[in-house]
Specification:
The complex is a heterodimer of chains A (133) and B (148).
Chain A (H helix, E strand, L loop, with lengths): L8 E7 L4 H11 L9 H6 L9 H13 L4 E11 L9 E10 L4 E10 L2 E12 L4
Chain B lengths: L12 E9 L2 H12 L30 H11 L9 E11 L8 E12 L2 E9 L5 E12 L4
């Protein structure tokens, strides 16, 4: 089987720092004006120490991270769990590795996003690799 | 995390079927907002080409369409946008069955289930004009402040 090997790691990428303006721009573009992501009092009442970035903004960055990996062809599936907050001002480290190869050139990637050294998002992507097209 | 029903339409009550679109201007704004934190996502980036012009997570914007959001919030009985329970996104699954092309209209069937009083699962099945499935979304939310 040609293409990426199980265990191969994608080059890590740092995104951000994520500012309030970035969150506002994403909220406007996505239509997601959830006050949790702009009102510090609502964030505090919801149990957050500061305003958290939308999980979908991080997932969007992770999707681009995967799709711009040179072997990546089409994205078949992307699943993400938002396990910890990314706060305003945080930088986010994106990492991924090939976890498995499937039939027809499919490739399973496990991804993480970390802020302040802590897991923020764990994700799994299934892609079709270009070499198998 | 990898399950057969990943991104599945799921169970629950159907809230309606809505027309949603891959409007080019909205795609451009969405991509620009991602590129603000991840510059390789910019259209002019010299990074490896991406087959789909529509960003992979773009379909999430359809949950925020006024008709869809209105139906969801009415069914949930909350309004986090007016000081009600906080809506916290816990998990998102997206399965892709066909490329989403800009400038097209789709039909989104939206379902809601409540596995627990403080939890909500929104499932969306998106079909093209020919009736072929294009994308499935499944979103898990925590309604903090909605506990009995």
């Amino acid at each position: 089987m040609s293409g990426p090997a199980v265990g191969e790691r994608l080059p890590a990428v740092m995104v951000g720092p994520i500012g309030l303006a970035d969150i506002a721009a994403y909220a406007a573009a996505a239509g997601d004006d959830n006050p949790l992501h702009r009102d510090p009092e609502i964030a505090r009442r919801a149990g957050f120490a500061a305003i958290p970035a939308p999980g979908m903004l991080l997932m969007a960055a992770m999707s681009e991270y995967v799709c711009r990996w040179p072997p990546a062809g089409s994205l078949l599936r992307l699943d993400a769990k938002f396990v910890g907050p990314v706060f305003v001002g945080d930088e986010v480290l994106l990492e991924a590795r090939v976890a498995a190869r499937g039939e027809g050139g499919a490739c399973i990637l496990r991804l993480t996003a970390k802020a302040r050294g802590k897991l923020s998002v764990v994700a799994e992507a299934e892609i079709r690799v270009r070499s198998a097209l | 995390m990898s399950t057969p029903e990943s991104g599945g339409a799921g169970d629950g009550r159907e809230l309606g079927r809505f027309v949603v679109r891959t409007a080019p201007e909205r795609i451009a704004a969405f991509r620009a907002s991602i590129a603000a934190i991840f510059p390789a996502a910019a259209p002019e980036s010299a990074a490896a080409p991406v087959e789909a012009a529509v960003p992979p997570t773009f379909p999430i914007v359809w949950l925020a369409e006024p008709e869809v959001r209105g139906a969801l919030l009415a069914a949930l009985g909350i309004d986090p946008f007016a000081g009600g329970a906080a809506l916290i996104h816990l998990e998102q699954r997206i399965a892709y069955f066909a490329p989403l092309e800009p400038g097209r209209a789709f039909e989104a069937a939206v379902r809601l289930s409540r596995p627990a009083p403080e939890r909500a699962t929104v499932s969306v099945e998106v079909r093209d004009a020919e009736g072929s499935i294009a994308v499935r979304l499944a979103s898990e939310f925590l309604l903090r402040g909605a506990e009995p």
